[in-house]
Design brief:
The protein contains 11 helices and 2 strands. It is globular, with a radius of gyration of 18 Å. It has a two-stranded antiparallel sheet. By secondary structure, it is mainly alpha-helical.
Length: 249
């Protein structure tokens, strides 16, 4: 586990951007112990009927992804864009004003620029532009678009699960963008190729639904299993636009 910083150490974090710095797209995620969600235990994966339950360490260089993992990601992304109009709107209308940056407790506490809600969402938007917009397909990096790679997938996983979806950023967004909805969809998209091969992670960073607890992650995993495979399994999208809640019988 990572050492918890002392309050005086946190107070010394400089949140100002350096004058000269390499672009964020060229810096892969530095996966540090204690910061990420750990791999699910095989017994929990078996409990919810996930295929290929096995031990998995996110710090491994080789994540043992299926050969068609990019197709799985793109199909999952397209499916969510088609089903949830708000997600597509939120992908397109952000002007990156940064009003949300200092509202996120994870950015304040870590000083990591990729923990700013605007940049955390940009991790998804950059791939969205490359695959689903004409400007991104033609202009590439000039339009803020980038290819989907294993490093990008790991970056999604590392930063999207640091978000607790508290929606403080959404409260201060002048455009009313619900960043939590984008993060929730991003988590499902990121997990889809790994879940099919037993490379699932604990979702304790999520806001848990009724009847779920960090000590019993099985219901939460079951909820996401339904999302991965297109089977509802008794869950529906919450009216506020993000997350999946158990249906009231």
């Amino acid at each position: 586990m990572a050492d918890t910083p002392k309050p005086e150490q946190t107070a010394q974090i400089d949140h100002r951007a350096p004058l000269f710095e390499e672009g964020w797209m060229n810096k892969p995620a530095e996966i540090r112990p204690g910061i990420y969600c750990y791999g699910s235990k095989p017994k929990n994966l078996e409990y919810v009927g996930m295929p290929y339950p096995k031990e998995w360490n996110p710090e491994d260089d080789d994540w043992q992804l299926p050969e068609n993992w990019k197709e799985i990601i793109q199909e999952g992304f397209k499916d969510r864009l088609d089903r949830f109009r708000t997600l597509k709107v939120f992908m397109d209308i952000c002007v990156r004003c940064g009003a949300c940056a200092d509202k996120c407790h994870f950015f304040i506490g870590s000083g990591d620029p990729k923990n700013m809600p605007v940049l955390r969402a940009e991790l998804l938007r950059s791939v969205y532009r490359k695959n689903f917009t004409t400007g991104g397909k033609v202009l590439g990096l000039f339009a803020g678009a980038r290819e989907l790679t294993e490093d990008v997938l790991k970056e999604w996983w590392y930063y999207l699960y640091q978000c607790t979806e508290c929606r403080r950023c959404s409260l201060f967004c002048p455009y009313g963008i619900d960043t939590a909805e984008g993060h929730d969809s991003g988590q499902g998209i990121d997990q889809s190729p790994r879940a099919q091969y037993g490379l699932d992670c604990r979702t304790g960073g999520q806001l848990l639904s009724d009847g779920e607890s960090p000590r019993n992650p099985a219901p939460c995993l079951q909820r996401y299993a339904g999302v991965f495979y297109g089977r509802d399994r008794g869950y529906h999208r919450h009216p506020n636009g993000a997350g999946f809640q158990p249906q009231r019988r």
